[in-house]
Amino acid sequence: MTRALLAGLAVAAATGPLGCFVVWRRMAYFGDATAHAAILGVALALAFQISIFAGTLVVALVMAMVVSTLAGRGWAMDTTLGVLAHSGLALGLVAVSFLPTVRVDLSAFLFGDILAVSRADLGVIAAGSALGVGLMGWRWAALLTATLNEDLAHAAGIAPGRERMVLTLALAVVVAVALKVVGALLIAAMLIIPAAAARNFARGPEAMAVLAVAIGAAAVYGGLQMSLWLDTPSGPSIVSVAAAGFALSLALGAGLRALGR
Protein backbone atom coordinates (compact mmCIF):
# COMPACT_ATOMS: atom_id res chain seq x y z
CA MET A 1 0.00 0.00 0.00
CA THR A 2 2.89 2.38 0.74
CA ARG A 3 4.43 1.81 -2.69
CA ALA A 4 1.02 2.15 -4.31
CA LEU A 5 0.37 5.46 -2.54
CA LEU A 6 3.80 6.84 -3.47
CA ALA A 7 3.34 5.79 -7.11
CA GLY A 8 -0.10 7.37 -7.23
CA LEU A 9 1.15 10.62 -5.70
CA ALA A 10 3.99 10.76 -8.22
CA VAL A 11 1.54 10.35 -11.09
CA ALA A 12 -0.80 12.97 -9.58
CA ALA A 13 2.10 15.43 -9.37
CA ALA A 14 2.69 15.06 -13.12
CA THR A 15 -0.91 14.83 -14.33
CA GLY A 16 -1.94 17.97 -12.41
CA PRO A 17 -0.05 20.64 -14.39
CA LEU A 18 -0.12 18.63 -17.61
CA GLY A 19 -3.87 18.14 -17.28
CA CYS A 20 -4.32 21.89 -16.99
CA PHE A 21 -2.83 22.35 -20.46
CA VAL A 22 -4.95 19.46 -21.76
CA VAL A 23 -8.04 21.30 -20.47
CA TRP A 24 -6.94 24.76 -21.62
CA ARG A 25 -6.06 23.54 -25.11
CA ARG A 26 -9.12 21.25 -25.34
CA MET A 27 -6.88 18.24 -25.90
CA ALA A 28 -8.91 15.67 -23.97
CA TYR A 29 -9.14 13.29 -26.90
CA PHE A 30 -5.46 13.85 -27.63
CA GLY A 31 -4.56 12.33 -24.26
CA ASP A 32 -7.03 9.52 -24.80
CA ALA A 33 -5.49 8.59 -28.17
CA THR A 34 -1.98 8.58 -26.70
CA ALA A 35 -3.08 6.42 -23.79
CA HIS A 36 -4.88 3.89 -26.00
CA ALA A 37 -1.81 3.58 -28.22
CA ALA A 38 0.20 2.57 -25.16
CA ILE A 39 -1.41 -0.90 -25.33
CA LEU A 40 0.28 -1.39 -28.70
CA GLY A 41 3.53 -0.44 -26.96
CA VAL A 42 2.91 -3.17 -24.38
CA ALA A 43 2.44 -5.75 -27.14
CA LEU A 44 5.62 -4.68 -28.95
CA ALA A 45 7.60 -4.68 -25.71
CA LEU A 46 6.48 -8.24 -24.95
CA ALA A 47 7.22 -9.37 -28.50
CA PHE A 48 10.76 -7.95 -28.52
CA GLN A 49 11.38 -8.71 -24.84
CA ILE A 50 12.20 -5.14 -23.87
CA SER A 51 11.04 -2.99 -20.98
CA ILE A 52 7.29 -2.36 -20.88
CA PHE A 53 8.01 1.25 -19.99
CA ALA A 54 10.33 1.67 -22.99
CA GLY A 55 7.80 0.13 -25.38
CA THR A 56 4.89 2.22 -24.16
CA LEU A 57 6.98 5.39 -24.12
CA VAL A 58 8.13 4.95 -27.72
CA VAL A 59 4.65 4.17 -29.07
CA ALA A 60 2.99 6.90 -26.99
CA LEU A 61 5.58 9.40 -28.22
CA VAL A 62 5.10 8.34 -31.86
CA MET A 63 1.32 8.59 -31.53
CA ALA A 64 1.52 11.98 -29.82
CA MET A 65 3.88 13.34 -32.48
CA VAL A 66 1.67 12.05 -35.30
CA VAL A 67 -1.38 13.68 -33.75
CA SER A 68 0.50 16.91 -33.08
CA THR A 69 1.76 17.03 -36.68
CA LEU A 70 -1.69 16.41 -38.11
CA ALA A 71 -3.12 19.11 -35.83
CA GLY A 72 -0.60 21.58 -37.20
CA ARG A 73 -1.73 20.78 -40.75
CA GLY A 74 -5.38 21.53 -40.08
CA TRP A 75 -6.81 18.01 -40.08
CA ALA A 76 -10.28 17.41 -38.63
CA MET A 77 -8.94 16.31 -35.26
CA ASP A 78 -12.07 14.85 -33.71
CA THR A 79 -12.34 12.25 -36.48
CA THR A 80 -8.59 11.69 -36.76
CA LEU A 81 -8.17 11.19 -33.02
CA GLY A 82 -11.13 8.82 -32.92
CA VAL A 83 -9.60 6.68 -35.65
CA LEU A 84 -6.10 6.69 -34.13
CA ALA A 85 -7.22 6.08 -30.55
CA HIS A 86 -9.36 3.04 -31.24
CA SER A 87 -7.06 1.68 -33.95
CA GLY A 88 -4.08 1.81 -31.59
CA LEU A 89 -6.00 0.01 -28.84
CA ALA A 90 -7.38 -2.64 -31.22
CA LEU A 91 -3.99 -3.27 -32.85
CA GLY A 92 -2.41 -3.69 -29.43
CA LEU A 93 -5.01 -6.23 -28.33
CA VAL A 94 -4.69 -8.13 -31.62
CA ALA A 95 -0.89 -8.09 -31.43
CA VAL A 96 -0.94 -9.62 -27.94
CA SER A 97 -3.05 -12.52 -29.24
CA PHE A 98 -0.15 -13.47 -31.56
CA LEU A 99 2.12 -14.05 -28.55
CA PRO A 100 0.96 -17.49 -27.33
CA THR A 101 4.05 -18.02 -25.16
CA VAL A 102 3.48 -14.80 -23.25
CA ARG A 103 1.13 -14.93 -20.27
CA VAL A 104 -0.11 -11.46 -19.48
CA ASP A 105 -3.17 -10.04 -17.77
CA LEU A 106 -4.24 -7.24 -20.10
CA SER A 107 -6.77 -5.93 -17.60
CA ALA A 108 -3.82 -4.70 -15.54
CA PHE A 109 -2.71 -2.53 -18.46
CA LEU A 110 -6.24 -1.46 -19.37
CA PHE A 111 -7.42 -0.55 -15.86
CA GLY A 112 -4.17 -0.34 -13.91
CA ASP A 113 -2.67 -2.49 -11.17
CA ILE A 114 -1.25 0.00 -8.71
CA LEU A 115 -1.12 -2.56 -5.89
CA ALA A 116 1.40 -4.59 -7.91
CA VAL A 117 3.89 -1.72 -8.19
CA SER A 118 7.37 -2.97 -7.27
CA ARG A 119 10.29 -0.91 -6.00
CA ALA A 120 11.75 -0.87 -9.51
CA ASP A 121 8.39 0.26 -10.91
CA LEU A 122 8.21 2.98 -8.28
CA GLY A 123 11.63 4.25 -9.31
CA VAL A 124 10.61 4.39 -12.98
CA ILE A 125 7.31 6.11 -12.15
CA ALA A 126 9.03 8.66 -9.93
CA ALA A 127 11.69 9.40 -12.57
CA GLY A 128 9.13 9.70 -15.37
CA SER A 129 6.88 11.95 -13.31
CA ALA A 130 9.86 14.12 -12.35
CA LEU A 131 10.77 14.43 -16.03
CA GLY A 132 7.22 15.45 -16.91
CA VAL A 133 7.07 18.01 -14.10
CA GLY A 134 10.51 19.29 -15.06
CA LEU A 135 9.46 19.82 -18.67
CA MET A 136 6.33 21.68 -17.53
CA GLY A 137 8.31 23.86 -15.14
CA TRP A 138 11.03 24.60 -17.70
CA ARG A 139 8.63 25.77 -20.40
CA TRP A 140 5.75 26.98 -18.20
CA ALA A 141 5.74 30.65 -19.26
CA ALA A 142 6.27 29.85 -22.94
CA LEU A 143 3.59 27.17 -22.89
CA LEU A 144 1.14 29.56 -21.25
CA THR A 145 1.83 32.23 -23.86
CA ALA A 146 1.48 29.79 -26.77
CA THR A 147 -1.75 28.45 -25.25
CA LEU A 148 -3.18 31.93 -24.74
CA ASN A 149 -2.45 33.27 -28.22
CA GLU A 150 -0.13 31.97 -30.91
CA ASP A 151 0.25 35.42 -32.48
CA LEU A 152 1.33 36.80 -29.11
CA ALA A 153 3.78 33.91 -28.79
CA HIS A 154 5.31 34.73 -32.18
CA ALA A 155 5.64 38.39 -31.16
CA ALA A 156 7.46 37.32 -28.00
CA GLY A 157 9.89 35.15 -29.98
CA ILE A 158 8.25 31.88 -28.94
CA ALA A 159 7.67 29.09 -31.47
CA PRO A 160 4.22 27.56 -30.82
CA GLY A 161 5.20 24.42 -32.70
CA ARG A 162 8.17 23.85 -30.40
CA GLU A 163 6.01 24.33 -27.32
CA ARG A 164 3.47 21.89 -28.74
CA MET A 165 6.25 19.32 -29.11
CA VAL A 166 7.37 19.88 -25.49
CA LEU A 167 3.80 19.30 -24.36
CA THR A 168 3.63 16.22 -26.58
CA LEU A 169 6.81 14.79 -25.04
CA ALA A 170 5.59 15.44 -21.49
CA LEU A 171 2.27 13.79 -22.30
CA ALA A 172 3.95 10.69 -23.72
CA VAL A 173 6.20 10.32 -20.67
CA VAL A 174 3.33 10.70 -18.22
CA VAL A 175 1.15 8.22 -20.16
CA ALA A 176 3.97 5.67 -20.08
CA VAL A 177 4.48 5.95 -16.32
CA ALA A 178 0.77 6.16 -15.46
CA LEU A 179 -0.08 2.97 -17.35
CA LYS A 180 0.87 0.84 -14.34
CA VAL A 181 -1.16 2.98 -11.95
CA VAL A 182 -4.55 3.62 -13.59
CA GLY A 183 -4.30 1.82 -16.94
CA ALA A 184 -4.72 2.96 -20.53
CA LEU A 185 -8.48 3.43 -20.33
CA LEU A 186 -8.32 5.67 -17.25
CA ILE A 187 -5.20 7.79 -17.86
CA ALA A 188 -7.17 10.48 -19.66
CA ALA A 189 -9.50 10.68 -16.66
CA MET A 190 -6.61 11.46 -14.31
CA LEU A 191 -5.40 14.12 -16.73
CA ILE A 192 -8.77 15.81 -17.15
CA ILE A 193 -10.86 15.38 -13.99
CA PRO A 194 -8.54 16.96 -11.36
CA ALA A 195 -7.76 19.89 -13.68
CA ALA A 196 -11.44 20.38 -14.50
CA ALA A 197 -12.30 20.33 -10.80
CA ALA A 198 -9.52 22.81 -9.98
CA ARG A 199 -10.78 25.23 -12.63
CA ASN A 200 -13.91 25.86 -10.56
CA PHE A 201 -11.85 27.48 -7.77
CA ALA A 202 -8.48 28.67 -9.13
CA ARG A 203 -7.97 32.33 -9.98
CA GLY A 204 -4.77 31.86 -11.96
CA PRO A 205 -2.93 29.20 -13.99
CA GLU A 206 -0.34 28.40 -11.31
CA ALA A 207 -3.03 28.10 -8.63
CA MET A 208 -5.03 25.82 -10.91
CA ALA A 209 -2.02 23.54 -11.47
CA VAL A 210 -1.27 23.29 -7.74
CA LEU A 211 -4.92 22.64 -6.91
CA ALA A 212 -5.14 19.99 -9.65
CA VAL A 213 -2.17 18.19 -8.08
CA ALA A 214 -3.85 18.35 -4.66
CA ILE A 215 -7.14 17.01 -6.02
CA GLY A 216 -5.34 14.22 -7.86
CA ALA A 217 -3.39 13.29 -4.73
CA ALA A 218 -6.60 13.24 -2.67
CA ALA A 219 -8.22 11.02 -5.31
CA VAL A 220 -5.29 8.58 -5.14
CA TYR A 221 -5.47 8.36 -1.34
CA GLY A 222 -9.27 8.12 -1.29
CA GLY A 223 -9.32 5.56 -4.10
CA LEU A 224 -6.79 3.33 -2.37
CA GLN A 225 -8.75 3.50 0.88
CA MET A 226 -11.94 2.67 -1.00
CA SER A 227 -10.18 -0.27 -2.67
CA LEU A 228 -8.95 -1.51 0.71
CA TRP A 229 -12.27 -1.19 2.54
CA LEU A 230 -14.66 -2.26 -0.21
CA ASP A 231 -12.39 -4.64 -2.17
CA THR A 232 -12.91 -2.67 -5.39
CA PRO A 233 -10.39 -2.39 -8.27
CA SER A 234 -7.84 0.27 -7.38
CA GLY A 235 -7.53 2.18 -10.69
CA PRO A 236 -11.27 2.65 -11.24
CA SER A 237 -11.66 3.49 -7.54
CA ILE A 238 -9.14 6.32 -7.85
CA VAL A 239 -10.95 7.74 -10.87
CA SER A 240 -14.33 7.34 -9.14
CA VAL A 241 -13.12 9.39 -6.19
CA ALA A 242 -11.75 12.02 -8.60
CA ALA A 243 -15.14 12.12 -10.35
CA ALA A 244 -16.86 12.59 -6.98
CA GLY A 245 -14.46 15.45 -6.28
CA PHE A 246 -15.35 17.04 -9.60
CA ALA A 247 -19.07 16.81 -8.82
CA LEU A 248 -18.42 18.36 -5.41
CA SER A 249 -16.40 21.15 -7.02
CA LEU A 250 -19.31 21.97 -9.31
CA ALA A 251 -21.68 22.25 -6.35
CA LEU A 252 -19.25 24.29 -4.24
CA GLY A 253 -18.34 26.50 -7.18
CA ALA A 254 -22.00 27.25 -7.87
CA GLY A 255 -22.55 28.02 -4.20
CA LEU A 256 -19.59 30.38 -4.03
CA ARG A 257 -20.72 32.19 -7.17
CA ALA A 258 -24.21 32.56 -5.72
CA LEU A 259 -22.77 34.03 -2.51
CA GLY A 260 -20.59 36.37 -4.57
CA ARG A 261 -23.64 37.81 -6.24
Mean pLDDT: 84
Number of helices: 12
Distance between the termini: 45 Å
Uncertain runs: none
Strand content: under 5%
CATH class: Mainly Alpha
Q: Give the helix proportion (percent range).
A: over 70%
CATH superfamily: ABC transporter involved in vitamin B12 uptake, BtuC
- Secondary-structure element pattern, one letter each: HHHHHHHHHHHH
CATH-scheme architecture: Orthogonal Bundle
> Radius of gyration, rounded?
18 Å
Class inferred from helices and paired strands = mainly alpha
* CATH fold assignment: ABC transporter involved in vitamin B12 uptake, BtuC
Principal-axis shape: globular
Topology:
Blueprint: H1 2-24, H2 28-48, H3 52-72, H4 77-97, H5 106-111, H6 119-138, H7 140-148, H8 150-155, H9 160-182, H10 187-198, H11 205-230, H12 234-260
Helix pairs in contact: 1-6, 1-9, 1-10, 1-11, 2-3, 2-4, 2-9, 2-10, 3-4, 3-9, 6-9, 7-9, 10-11, 10-12, 11-12
